[in-house]
Design goal:
This protein is mainly beta. The protein has helices at residues 19-22, 407-412, and strands spanning 24-25, 32-48, 59-75, 79-91, 103-118, 123-131, 153-161, 165-173, 192-199, 206-220, 225-239, 243-257, 260-274, 283-291, 326-337, 341-351, 359-360, 366-368, 377-389, 394-405, 419-429. A hairpin with a 3-residue loop joins strand 7 and strand 8. The chain starts with 18 loop residues before the first helix and ends with a strand.
């Protein structure tokens, strides 16, 4: 979230080189100033047996590129204009670009901030225009940093911050993403709204509370394709830092799907321990998710959970399964290696929560029907990820994933094949 960066501290320093781009006074009294920045990112992807061989693509390797440029113009302490251009490109993918792969040129952010209230411990801000949203652990609303094309919305947000209490309310429109130049189609209606609150208690449990509403003209689940109005209420209790760490979250959804009713839910437990004072600072975690699927195929009602706008890599850096109709057990561990290297290894066991529903993609979209199969186990994912952070500007990430198909995949795909995924990504930010 580049618009969250603050370079006002450079006003009183002797700026050199790179720092001159980050703080550029445009008035003699320094009340008007400009900050410039950008990013260049390239990623090589090698995917073998996408969708476990169902698409019969075999080896599918391609190149992703992303370029951003932004300008942050401040008018005193209360007004600012932030704008960002984004170019996301894809080359070589056999089955074409997905929405997360390519958007050749588009306005990613273009908004005005007005700080109505600014006191020592309190602030109240209104943001109007195109903007990115990212809340909590990314279970329901995430900017989607992992995929090539990040998400954005257009609308208004009101944000209150008192240090220990943060509350944001928003009403947004989501565009239909197309691959060309400035050709994304605006929805012209509010289809995402809600409120997200956070209570920060240092050295204790932090608490998030939220409500999110969506409307979609056309939603696809195994149950049917129909209009969807869905409301989500949830809470998250979490603590990061040295020692015992945890992230507990639960949400319930209700509303209408076509002529039927929605009643869906999710619950997640992620607990671990960070040995912050030990060599290599190892951490070990165990995670367990329950995410509801449809109870009875064809009855008109829907119990399938909708992750709305989830983080793409919620179950690993490039999962093949999305957070819908799923039970998983997910142990993982991290090490801080010398030379600014960080290693993470994951093992994910995946089952269908309901035998009346199928498997969905990481975005939440429908993938494989499952009501004709009585098999529950989807498969096992083995993952390893290595990150090198040379400095604040340059990073390199490489990962590998092996997915061993389970009884369900072997039941519904005629000649199932285990999936192998490799990627390597380099990013330069300024």
């Amino acid at each position: 979230m580049r618009f969250e960066e603050d370079y006002r501290n450079l006003a009183d320093s002797a700026r050199r080189g790179y720092e001159r781009l980050k703080y550029m006074p445009l008035a003699s009294d320094d009340k008007i100033w400009l900050s410039l920045g950008g990013e260049a990112r390239a990623e090589y992807v090698d995917f073998n047996n996408e969708d476990w061989g169902r698409l019969q693509l075999g080896n599918n390797n391609f190149l992703l590129q992303r370029y951003n440029l932004h300008a942050d113009l401040h008018f005193g302490e209360r007004f600012r204009l932030f704008t960002q251009l984004r170019s996301a490109l894809q080359h070589g993918r056999k089955n074409g670009s997905r929405q997360i792969d390519e958007d050749q040129l588009n306005v990613q952010n273009l908004f005005i901030d007005w700080t109505i209230l600014e006191r020592i411990n309190r602030s109240l801000l209104i943001r109007i225009g195109r903007q990115e949203l990212d809340y909590g652990s990314g279970r329901l609303i995430s900017v989607g940093e992992g995929p090539n094309a990040r998400r954005y919305f257009t609308g208004a947000k009101i944000a209150y911050n008192s240090g220990k209490v943060k509350l944001e309310t928003f009403a947004m429109m989501a565009d239909t993403i197309k691959a060309g130049v400035f050709d994304n189609k605006p929805s012209k209606q509010i289809n995402l709204w809600g409120a997200y609150g956070k209570i920060i208690m240092p050295r204790q449990a932090n608490i998030d509370l939220y409500y999110i509403g969506i409307f979609r003209d056309r939603s696809m689940f195994e149950e049917d394709v129909a209009k969807e109005t869905r409301h989500s209420i949830g809470t998250r209790i979490w603590k990061y830092g040295g020692g015992f760490i945890y992230n507990l979250e639960g949400a319930y959804q209700f509303g209408s799907f076509g002529k039927g009713k929605i009643s869906a839910w999710t619950a997640s437990v992620d607990i671990g321990y960070l040995f912050e004072d030990s060599y290599l600072k190892p951490s070990i975690n165990l995670r367990n998710d329950y995410i509801s699927g449809d109870k009875k195929a064809g009855d008109g009602n829907l119990q399938t959970f909708n992750p709305i706008y989830p983080k793409g890599g919620y179950f690993g850096f490039s999962p093949q399964i999305g957070p819908v109709n799923l039970i998983d057990i997910h142990p993982y561990a991290t090490l801080d290696l010398p030379a600014n290297l960080k290693l993470q290894v994951d093992l994910v066991f995946n089952w269908r929560q309901s035998l009346q529903d199928g498997v969905y993609r990481p975005s939440g979209s429908f993938n494989l029907a499952g009501s004709m199969s009585r098999k529950r186990y989807i498969g096992t994912a083995y993952l390893a990820n290595l990150t090198w952070a040379a400095n604040k500007q340059l990073s390199l990430v490489s990962g590998i994933q092996y997915f061993k198909t389970g009884a369900f995949i072997e039941d519904i795909i005629t000649t199932p094949k285990n999936g192998i995924f490799f990627n390597s990504r380099i990013a330069l930010k300024f």
